């Protein structure tokens, strides 16, 4: 696989590793999302400790309102984080 192909496969693999912890095996509930952020993205997002941050993040990502994130809703989050990261890196390259 190419670098990009294996990156996409990794995103899918990580998503499923966390969805399988509790409840619906194909969706991330809030506690699973929190674990995923804290364990898989510590350098990018920092530790999310307060419940209000998780509540508002979950609310903004959960577009169909079932209180869990399916893969498409999760990808919105990955896109957001990736774009922020990219903008941050570009900004720093300009300096
Ligand atoms: Ca949902």
Brief account:
By secondary structure, the chain is mainly alpha-helical.
Written account of the structure:
It holds the Pfam family S_100. Keywords: Calcium, Metal-binding, Repeat. InterPro entries: EF-hand-dom_pair (IPR011992), EF_hand_dom (IPR002048), S100/CaBP7/8-like_CS (IPR001751), S100_Ca-bd_sub (IPR013787). It comes from Oncorhynchus mykiss (Rainbow trout). One of its GO terms (cellular component) is neuron projection. With 95 residues, the chain is mainly alpha-helical. It has one domain (3-94): Orthogonal Bundle (Recoverin, domain 1), CATH 1.10.238.10. It has helices at 3-19, 30-40, 42-45, 51-61, 71-94; strands at residues 28-29, 68-69. The protein has a two-stranded antiparallel sheet. Helix 1 (3-19) packs across helix 2 (30-40). It is globular, with a radius of gyration of 14 Å. The protein starts with a helix and ends with a helix. The model has no long low-confidence stretch (mean pLDDT 92). The structure holds calcium ion. Calcium ion is lined by residues 62, 64, 66, 68-70, 73.
List the helices and strands and how they pair.
Blueprint: H1 3-19, E1 28-29, H2 30-40, H3 42-45, H4 51-61, E2 68-69, H5 71-94
Antiparallel strand pairs: 1-2
Helix pairs in contact: 1-2
This protein binds calcium ion (CA).
The gross shape turns out to be: globular
Reported by name, the CATH topology is Recoverin, domain 1
What compounds are bound to the protein?
calcium ion
For the record, the count of structural domains works out to: 1
State the helix count: 5
Sheet with the most strands: spatial strand order: 1-2
Number of strands: 2
Organism: Oncorhynchus mykiss
InterPro entries: EF-hand-dom_pair, EF_hand_dom, S100/CaBP7/8-like_CS, S100_Ca-bd_sub
Domain EF-hand: 49-84
GO molecular function, one term: calcium-dependent protein binding
């Amino acid at each position: 696989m190419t670098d990009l192909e294996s990156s996409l496969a990794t995103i899918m693999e990580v998503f499923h590793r966390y969805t399988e912890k509790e409840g619906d095996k194909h969706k991330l509930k809030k506690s699973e999302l929190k674990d995923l952020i804290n364990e898989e993205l510590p350098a990018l997002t920092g530790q999310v400790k307060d419940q209000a941050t998780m509540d508002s993040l979950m609310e903004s990502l959960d577009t169909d309102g079932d209180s869990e994130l399916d893969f498409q809703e999760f990808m919105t989050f990955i896109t957001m984080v990736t774009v922020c990261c990219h903008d941050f890196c570009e900004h720093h390259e300009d300096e």
